[in-house]
Amino acid sequence: MTTALTDTSVRLAEIRALNRHLVSAQDAKILKVVAMVDALPDRGAADSLIAPLRPRLAQLRPSRPLSVTRLMFIPLDPVVVQATDWRRGALTIPRTALPCLARQFIALDPTLSDSVAAEVADATTDDLGVIRRAGGRLWPRAASLLAAAPPPADWAAATSLTAADHRAIRDSVVLALTHAPAIAHQLAAERPDPETIADMLKQTAATPEAMGMLITLLLHWVPTAASQVLELTSAHSSPIGLAGRTAIEKAVEHVLDAIETEQEAPQTGIAGLPRLRRSIALLDELESGSADRPMRAARIAATRARVDAACRGRFQTLLKDSVVGHLAQGLPVAPEDIVNLEVAARDIRSFEHVARRINRSDHYDRQLRAIVTGLAPQGGDDQQLRVDRLRLAEILLGPEQAMQMLMDAEKAAAAGA
Amino acid sequence: MSAQLGATFTLPKPVLGYHPGTFLERGASVPFTTPQLNGARARPGPRGDLEFTIPNPSGGRGLYIVPWEGVFALCRPTVHDCRLIASLSGLRGVTPMVIRSAARIIAAEGLAGRAARSAAEAAMAIDEKARMMANFQLLLELVNQTEAASGAAPAGAAQETSIVMEHRARRAVAKIAPDLRRSTEEVAACLEELAGLYTNIGVGRLAAGSRVPRIVADVSALREVMLEWARTHPDDTGADAARIAESAEVTLTCVRVVLAEAHALPRDMRALMRLWLEAPQDLAARITRPDWLVDGWERIGLLWQTAETLGREATLAEMASLIPVLPKEVADWCRIPLPGLSESVPRRRMVSMMEDWRTGVTPYDLIARNEQLLSMAP
Which of B83, B112, B141 is the last residue of a domain? Predict the structure, then answer.
C-alpha cells in the first residue's frame, strides 16, 4: 500500500509538473496527462489537475477508460458544464454534481454497479457496442433509483448547491438516463425513426424545461433527427403544442450557441473534425426544417457564417504553418520529415473535405491552387524528390493534377534525353 | 487522363447474385489504394483483355464488372492506382502471383509512399530468395530420390561442402535426364521453372516459412481472434466477426487439402518433372491452388492490425465485406463436402463512412490506411 501511495504521489508530482504549461500545450502532451490521470488507482485530486484542460479535451476527444461513472453520464455529455459556467434554469448540468450522484447510485445498487464495472473493465469510450450494451442495463436502473432518492448526504459539501438545485439537476439527469437507450439506438440506426422520436417528445410534453433538455440531447446525439424534431414541435397543429414550440426555440438557441463557442475557440490540428462534421450535419438539418421560420432560419444562417469564417481562418493557418512554410524552404530530405509533411497535408485536406460543406464556397480550392508552383516537379529534381513532390501534389491538389504533373515531367525528361 | 477516360465510359448496372464458378472468374485481388476500389479483383475479360470486379462502393448489393477504363467512371483513382491499372491493362494471364508482382513493381516507384516502396522492394528480394530456396529444395529431393537405392547420406546436411553437393546434383540431373528424354540443361531449366511455381508454398522441411503457409497461420490466428470477438460481442460486430471466422475456417480446410497435395508432389520428382514437361498448365494450376484460396485474406488480416484508423466496429464491417467468395470449383479441388456459409449482409461501406457525420473519417485517412496496408504486406 505504501508503494501504491508513493507511486501515486510520484505520478501526481509528474502531472503537476506537466500541468504548468498545459493550457497552451501541444495535443500530445495533453493526451499524455489525461492518460496518466486515467491510469491512477485513485484519481482524487488529480481530477482537478485536468479541469483546465476540459475545453481542449472536448475537441481532442481522447479515448478514455470506461467506468461506471463515466458510462452513466455519457448521455449527458452535451449539457455538462464547469460549475462556474452553470446557471439556474439553463439547459445545462454542473460537472461537480456528477460524481456525487454516481456515488449515490453505486451505494443504492452495488450489485449492478459491480456487474457493469466488470463488463466495461477493458473497454474505452470508443467502444460504442459496449457502451450501448452496458449502458442499456445501467441507464434505466440509475434513472429509476435516482428519481426516488433524496439529495445525497454529501451534496452540499461536494457541490456547494442547494436541495432545490439537487431536485432540478436530478430531474434533468433522470430524464437523460431514461431516454438514453432509445437515443443510443437512434444514434446507431441508419436513419432516425420518426415514431420513436415523437414518442420520446410526447413523454415530456407537460414540462417545457424537460422537453428543452430532451431536444438539446436529441439534437446533439442524433443531428439527422433535427428536422423531425422541428416538425413535431414547431407546427401549431402539433400534439406537443405550446410546450414544444417554447422548448424547441430554447434548445435551438442553446445548440447554436454551443456550436459557435466550440468552433470559434482556438484549435490546433484537426482533432475537432468529428465535432465539426456533426455540427454541419445539425446545421443542415435545422436549416431544412426552418424554411417557414424566418427568424430561426436567419439565426442558423448567422451561425453558419460564423463557423465558416472560423473554419476558413483555421484552414489558412494550417496551410501556412504546415505546408507553405516548408515548401518555401524546399522539401525536407529525411524520410520522417517527408512523412510528417504528408500527414500534415492529409490533415489539411481532411479538414477542407468537411469544412467546405458549410457554405460550399471555392475558398479552399483557391487557397490550394495558390501553392501549385511549389508542388510541381522541377528540372533539377532527382527521382525521390520528384516522387515526394507528386505525392504532396496528389494529396493537396488531387490525383488528376498530380497525374498531369507526372506526365509532363516524363515528357520533359524524354525530351531532355 | 482519368477524368477524360471516365467521361467516355458508361457505367453498367451492378451485377447482383454474383457467384463465380471458377477462381479465374472470381479474379485475383488487386492492392489498390483508392478507398472506392477496396475489394477490387482483376480477371480476364471477354476479349482476352483485363477487366475488374469492384464491390458496389455505395454499400448496396452487387458488384460492378468493368473494363480497366471503366474504373475511371466509378471513382478518381490515386496516381498509384492509375499506374497500376495502366500496368495491368497490358496483362493477358491473371494469377494472384502475376498481379502481386505487377503491384510490387508499381509500389516500388514510391507513389504509394516510401514505406510501401521499401516493403515492395523487400518483398521482391524475399520472393527471389524463396525461389532460389525452392530450387535448392527441389534439387535436394531429386538427389535424395535418385540416390535412395545406393544408401547414400541425405543431401544438404550441414557438414556437406558446396562442391560435394554440386557434384551430387549434377549426377542426379544426369541420371534422370535420359528417363525424361531431355538434356541435362533442359532438366535444370525444368527445376528452375518448378521452383518458380513453388516459391509461394515452399518445398520440404522449410515450406512452413513460405508465403502461403505463413498466411495460413495468420488466417488461423485471425479466426481465433474473430471467434473470441463474436463470443464477447452479441451485436452486429459479433455477427461480422462470426462470418469472418466461419469463412476463414472453410478456407483453411480447403487450403490445407490443396497445400498438402502440392507439397506431396516433390516426393516423386521423376513424376513431377514428367508432369511439368508434358502438361505444364495443368500442373501449374494445381500448384497455384493454395495461392488462389488465400488470395484476399492477407488484406483482411492486415485491416484488423490497422483497426485504430476506423475503429474496430467499422473495421469489422469492412473486413466482412471483403471476405473472398469461394467459387464452386473449390468443391472439385478439395473433394470434401463444404458447409453452406452465412449469407453476406451488406452493411455501411467505406464510401458512406467517409460522408457519415458519426465519424471523422475522410478519403485521405482511408488512402493513408490503404498505403499502410501496402507497407505491411510481406
Answer: B112
B135 and B96 in a single domain? The answer is no
Question: How many contacts, defined by CB atoms under 8 Å, are there between A and B?
Answer: 84
Q: Is A109 on the interface with B (CB under 8 A)?
A: no
B3 touches chain A (CB under 8 A): yes
Asked whether the beta carbons of residue A354 and residue B362 sit closer than 8 angstroms, the reply is yes
How far apart, in whole angstroms, are the C-alpha atoms of residue B212 and residue B200? Answer: 6
Range of the domain at B51: 23-112
> One-letter amino acid identity for A157?
A
- The residue of chain A nearest to residue B110, with distances taken between CA atoms, is A387
Closest residue, chain B, to A282 (C-alpha): B357
Structural domain includes residue B16? no
- The number of folded domains in chain B is 2
Across the interface, of A274, A335, A387, the residue whose CB is closest to B111 is A387
Q: Do B318 and B359 belong together in one domain?
A: yes
Nearest by Cα to A5 from A32, A45, A33, A52:
A45
Establish if B151 touches chain A: CB-CB under 8 angstroms.
no
Instruction: Please indicate, yes or no, whether residues B219 and B293 belong to a single structural domain of this protein.
Output: yes
Element (H, E) at B167: helix B162-180
Average pLDDT, chain B: 88
Cβ of residue B365 closer than 8 Å to a chain A Cβ = yes
Q: What are phi and psi of B63, to 5 degrees?
A: -145, 160
B82 and A399 in contact by Cβ < 8 A?
Answer: yes
Give residue A66's pLDDT band: very low, low, confident or very high (50, 70, 90): very high
Same domain assignment for residues B334 and B238 = yes
Per-residue pLDDT for B369 more than 70? Answer: yes
Q: For an interface test with B, give the residue of A122, A346, A386 to mutate (most B CBs within 10 A).
A: A346
B91/B221 same-domain check: no
Rounded Cα–Cα distance for residues A315 and A354 (Å):
11
- Let me know if B2 is exposed, middle or buried by CB neighbors in 10 A (0-12, 13-18, 19+): buried
Q: Is the pLDDT of residue A215 over 80?
A: yes
- Does a structural domain hold residue B12? no
Residue of A277, A350, A402 with shortest CB distance to B364: A350
pLDDT for res A415: 81
For residue B243, the model assigns a pLDDT of 95
User: For residue B57, is it within any domain?
Assistant: yes
Any A CB within 8 A of B121 CB: no
Q: Are residues B101 and B119 in the same domain?
A: no
Query: Which residue among B80, B112, B144 closes a domain?
Result: B112
Supply the pTM of this predicted model. Answer: 0.85
Whether B44 and B191 map to the same domain: the answer is: no
Handedness of CA A312, A315, A321, A325 (dihedral sign): negative
Task: Count other C-beta atoms under 10 Å from residue B354's C-beta.
Answer: 18
- Residue A1 — pLDDT band, cuts 50, 70, 90? very low
Q: Is the pLDDT of residue A9 over 70?
A: no
Contact of A394 with B76, CB cutoff 8 Å: no
- Tell whether B35 is covered by a domain: yes
